[in-house]
Amino acid sequence: MNIVVVLKQTFDTEEKIVIQNGQISEDGVEFIINPYDEYAVEEAIKLKEEHGGEVTVISVGPDRAESALRTALAMGADKAVLVDDESLFGDEFTIAKVLAAVAKKVGFDIIIGGQMAVDSGAGQGGPRLAEELGINHVSTAVKLEVDGTNVRVERDVEGDLEVVETSLPVLITAQQGLNEPRYPSLPGIMKAKKKPLDRLGADDLGITADEVKAKTEIVDQTLPPKKQAGRILSGELAAQTSELVQLLRNEAKVI
Question: Which intervals hold domain Electron transfer flavoprotein alpha/beta-subunit N-terminal (predicted)?
Answer without folding.
Answer: 21-209
